[in-house]
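User: Before I run my own analysis I want an independent prediction to cross-check against. Here's the chain; please return only the structure tokens and, at the end, one sentence I can use as a sanity check.
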Amino acid sequence: MCLPLFIFGQDVKKSSVFGDSLYQVNIKKSKLYGVYIPRDIDDALSKLMELTTPEARKPMIRVHEDTIARKLHFGLGRWMEYNWNFDEGSRFSHVLREKGLTYTEDMTRFMLIIFHRHVSNKPLNTDKLITKLVEERMKKELIERDKHMLIHQETRKIEKKN
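Assistant: Structure tokens:
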């Protein structure tokens, strides 16, 4: 009886959705639930520029990009996650997954930082940012794994077949 609860409580890596049939359908659509899905990062930035006013973007310039990513995570960030369907897949989330961002939280943080850089007329340096976010995710996973106590470990000998 406890086994099903234990299984559902596990943190599943988001890249496991690649084989899902809904994911495969979603990544081919230009609109999901009536909302336009960007083709790529440049298209997403232009959509974000359309959705925001110059007055709303002006205060962003004075704040550091990490602060913006934290402060806008539950506003604009959640909007992107939901409307651009980061969890279940979309053509845009697929682009981000192919670049190495497999967690919704990382996709959101990436887009908020890139948007800040775009608004601030700074170089985007997307590849460096993706590398940084992937490395941070790996460190978090190692820390979480190290917190858990190893109960039992088995080693099997593999017999070579002639």
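Sanity check: Residues 67 and 113 are 9 Å apart (CA to CA).
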